[in-house]
Amino acid sequence: MPAKLDALVGQGLSLSEMPVVGPISAGHLQAYVDASVPPAPQLGQIETMMGKLSIALPKREMSDEEANERLDLYWQALKRHALPDLQQAFMTLLRTCKFFPTIAEIEAAVAPIRGRRTRRLVAARLLLMKHQREWRPSGEPLTADEVRQLGSILADPMGHKAGEAA
Predict the structure, then answer these.
(1) What DSSP state is assigned to residue 5?
(2) pLDDT value of position 146
(3) Longest alpha-carbon distance in the chain
């Protein structure tokens, strides 16, 4: 998505404050919305994230059976989150936690990340809706003659005649 449109999506404007975007911007927004369903995590990915945290943070000793039960418990609680949100939350927790985080701490770290992503998606959908409802092409379409004239102007914007030195 172009930087200007990306900034617009991130501004947090209300529907009445949003501009009416044109068809090119609407195309970028539609592509963003279409690609906005992030992948869900797989068990192995959660296991990897938890493993990295357990290496970096102090933890109590536990048996393999306890570790497997803990992994299953965390998996059941965290699998509903988007993978990119979890990965970002785990990186935040890696930098901020002093001990292995509880599920509630992980949920608290995911919430603002998911919130930002959701707000951007809602803004993109609102801009699309506003485009569909309010955008009108400005002026009349060019005639074939006007298109030819415009083409010749664009081909030689300085208006030089053939063989003339610039």
Answers:
(1) H
(2) 84
(3) 88
CA distance 105 to 55: 18
∠ CA 114-120-122, nearest 5°, is 100
Model pLDDT for residues 40-84, shown as the tens digit of each residue:
999 999 999 998 888 888 777 888 899 899 999 999 999 999 999
CB 131 within 8 A of CB 96: no
128 neighbors 33 (Cβ within 8 angstroms): yes
Contact by Cβ (8 Å): 127, 8: yes
* CA-wise closest residue to 93 among 84, 82, 81, 102: 102
- Tell me: pLDDT of 96 over 70: yes
pLDDT band at residue 160, thresholds of 50, 70 and 90?
low
CB within 8 A of 11, min separation 6: which ones?
A: 123
